[in-house]
Amino acid sequence: MANENLSEKVSVNINSSTLSEIDLLVDNGYYSNRSDFINYALRSALDENRSTIERLIESNSKRGNESHGWFIGVSGFTAKEIDEMYANNEKTTVFGYGVLKIDDKCDIEKLFAVIESIKVHGKVICSKEIKQHYSIK
Question: Rounded to whole angstroms, how far apart are CA atoms 91 and 114?
Fold first, then answer.
């Protein structure tokens, strides 16, 4: 997964007066560019909401009974994990925020038997066949 791009490009509308203030800070060396400023502002906002984020993570984690049932950040399934889950007759639904990677070496039939549904707010890295089966865009 090291070769995969784990960043996402997003578009935002910023009014001219706000953008001019950002440009003033960039031009005077406080930030290297607009993206640097925006990333800093986003990290600061997340830090301000850290207790809420942690509460939501804990709440969602308690709802998922399976080890892969719920995630935030980067998660995935290897062929070995799918084989073990299949051998143990385990089933799971996958819900999360971030990036989900499904190993290309997974046996498709076992995968479909083990994972009932996938819903990810973010990016799912897998074959077209898997995306089609789970209606992932």
Answer: 4
